[in-house]
Design a protein that fits this description.
Helices cover 62% and strands 3% of the residues. The chain is mostly helical and 156 residues long. It has a single domain, classed as Four Helix Bundle (Hemerythrin (Met), subunit A) (Up-down Bundle), CATH 1.20.120. The protein binds heme C.
């Protein structure tokens, strides 16, 4: 699937906000503010964390909203930063779809599984883009940045 087709499919997964974001960022011009990739990622980090927290609290409306917001961040990253390997984004489609289905079914266990896969997808891209030191994890608590691993990995 071509990137644009994939993004439209992703936007159509029931997230109005993702559709809006995809339209908004279609053709940024020089006089428009273009967020830095790290800033888009920081937003993705918060949304990833809030999605988990909402699922844990069984607040399915909030979980659906945060999932839409997270998708919007990923779509925005892919649209604005052409250097990002498309396959690294498209592999997230399956876990994003599982998360969506889990929320619709109000199934916390399924959502946790989907989040595990999704998080592995975040890290796979980080590794492939020389950012292996940015390690996301399924959150362990509500604390700030509870979804990131800060301890250095022992070098091989
Ligand atoms: C397609 C590739 C790709 C995917 C998928 C991806 N990232 Fe990133 N991420 C990057 C790149 C590249 C950077 C480094 C950006 C920079 O250096 O400005 C980054 C940086 C980050 C950072 C560090 C930002 C900072 O300023 O401290 C966080 C946090 C992050 N990503 C979270 C996530 C989360 C959460 C996901 C999954 C939901 C995710 N990323 C998925 C490519 C990706």
């Amino acid at each position: 699937m071509k990137l644009r087709g994939w993004m439209l499919a992703l936007a159509g997964l029931g997230a109005a906000s993702a559709t809006a974001a995809a339209q908004d960022v279609k053709s940024p011009s020089v006089d428009q503010y273009v967020p830095r990739l790290g800033d888009i990622m920081s937003a993705a980090q918060r949304r990833h964390h809030k999605l988990w927290l909402a699922g844990k609290a069984q607040n399915w409306d909030l979980a659906a909203y945060e999932l839409g917001q997270l998708k919007a961040s990923l779509v925005e990253a892919a649209l604005l930063y052409s250097g990002i390997p498309v396959s690294n984004v498209t592999t997230l489609e399956a876990p994003l779809q599982s998360a969506s289905a889990a929320i619709a079914a109000k199934d916390g266990r399924k959502l946790a599984n989907a989040l595990g896969e999704l998080t592995e997808g975040c890290n796979a891209c980080h590794r492939s883009m020389n950012r292996s030191f940015v390690v996301m994890k399924v959150p362990t608590d509500q604390g700030l940045f509870g979804n990131q691993e800060f301890a250095p990995k022992p070098r091989p």
